[in-house]
Amino acid sequence: MNTDTRPTLFNPLILLILGAVCISFAPVFVKLVGESRLGPTAIGFWRTLFGALVLFAVSFLRGSRLSLSPRLLKFAVLAGFIFFVDLFVWHRSVIYSGAGMSTILANTQVFVTAILSFFIFKEKLSLRFWVAAVSAIGGIALLVGLATDEVVFDTRYLQGIAFGLITGVVYGHYLVTMRWVSHREVIPDVMLFIAWASAFSTLFLGVSAVLESVPMIPPDTASWIYLISLGLVAQALGWWAITSSLAKIVASRAGLILLLQPTLAMVWGVLMFSEQFTPTQALGATITLTAIYFGGVRKHD
């Protein structure tokens, strides 16, 4: 894989934990802004804009040239478009179904990633993967409330569930695209590539928000603080920490650490927004997260 091999000044394990914690706050900031201030597409626009600016600034301070080759720029456009679709659907899932629910559903990307890797990279799918995939389906059924009468399946909630599952599909495509690019091309600075991809996502999200005729300007100081925090903490710091450390940690351990993100997102949702999970839903969340872990770990790890 042709990726940035620059040494990091920080312990990779600590960095990965930091990254997982940072991105666990993404649905929190989205929901804080999206409850009454801005729509999900506009939130995505500001998120990627602030994130791209920070990533460009850090790349500049690291001594990187801020330009990409024309070929890499095309791949950055592709990655940016897929990430735009990812945020378009996931932010809606966060607002409609909750921070915890949307994040767990989005993490089903591990199954999409594995299946795409089977076709593109010829990676084998083990029996453990299929057992995990079937278990995840059962876990999701419990998680969304199919086995309890305490969940109200109104239109808004069903849309949130649908958008969350679509997020898992789109996010899996984004990760595989990033891996495919790194296999085909030498990427001198992964952070700079992500900065450009974020910039193109900003462009696509901005155009989409204009076409939707939704408010674009945050209405108050609190909104600006939440959006800047979303761009800085989740988009820039979180993904920088994960990107910088992931390749330096055994995949099985990394997969376990990354489960902090959906787990903490669920905790934040309960503590900050009083999101309710019945015992059956909590069992479904546990089964789904366990399946996500085993489904994302390769046999040789």
Tag the structure with descriptive keywords.
301 residues, 13 helices, disordered N terminus
Would you write up a description of this structure?
The chain is an all-alpha fold. The protein has one domain (12-296). Helices cover 76% and strands 0% of the residues. It has 13 helices and no strands. Helix 3 (40-61) packs across helix 4 and helix 5 packs antiparallel against helix 12.
Mind describing the biggest β-sheet? none
- Sketch the topology as an H/E string, one letter per element: HHHHHHHHHHHHH
Total strands: 0
Distance between the termini: 18 Å
Mean pLDDT across the residues is: 91
Uncertain runs: 1-8
Quick structural gist:
The two termini are 18 Å apart. The chain is mostly helical and 301 residues long.
What order do the helices and strands come in, and which of them pair?
Blueprint (H helix, E strand, L loop, with lengths): L11 H13 L1 H9 L5 H22 L8 H28 L1 H8 L2 H12 L6 H18 L10 H30 L5 H23 L8 H25 L5 H8 L1 H14 L5 H18 L5
